[in-house]
Amino acid sequence: MARARSKAAYMISAVAEKYSIHPQTLRLYEREGLLEPSRSDGNTRLYTDQDLERLELILNLTRDLGVNLAGVEIILNMREKMAAMQRQIEEFIQTLGQELTTRVKAVEPESRNSLIPVAIHREPEPAKPARKRTVR
How far apart are CA 96 and CA 89, in angstroms? Predict the structure, then answer.
């Protein structure tokens, strides 16, 4: 079950304190295009839960795995492309399923039985006798 998302937004100072990083680091991530926090009417950066998840990934890559910011950018871009491809595959599978359903319904009822695969029963092969070993 997907976890419910709150509509809360966090200011840069709260995020920096929560993740033990300097606010300038968050600004750097924004300049590098790694994070895109929204802005309030007063131009204050506001970080959503989705931004915080992305920040956690960035921090995991940089702190735990030693990836530099250029590598982080490549990884994030690849993740986005993979997610887009996954969505396309899911859409294709859904369309394919709908098309198959439509075609099966179009087939006359008496010929539908011919569409059901029949299992083929094969007799197991007899076991080969064990070879005798000679001891010298």
Answer: 10
Q: Are residues 82 and 67 in contact, defined by beta-carbon separation less than 8 angstroms?
A: no
pLDDT 10s digits, 32-50? 999 999 999 999 999 999 9
For tokens 């569409």, what's the residue? Answer: 115
CA distances from 122 to 6, 126, 129 (A): 59, 12, 21
Q: Is the predicted pLDDT of residue 6 greater than 60, yes or no?
A: no
Model-level pTM greater than 0.85? no
CATH 1.10.287.1080 for domain 10-107, yes or no, is: no
Q: What letter represents residue 36's amino acid?
A: E
Query: Where do we find the tokens 């976890």?
Result: 3
Q: Give the burial class of 26: count Cβ atoms within 10 A of its Cβ; 0-12 exposed, 13-18 middle, 19 or more buried.
A: buried
Q: How far apart are CA 136 and CA 125, in angstroms?
A: 33
Estimate to the nearest angstrom the gap between the alpha carbon of 74 and the chain centroid: 16
| Backbone dihedral region for residue 133 (phi beyond 0: left; psi -120 to 50: alpha; all else: beta) | beta
User: Which are the contacts of 71, defined by CB distance < 8 A and separation ≥ 6?
Assistant: 61
Type of residue numbered 46: L
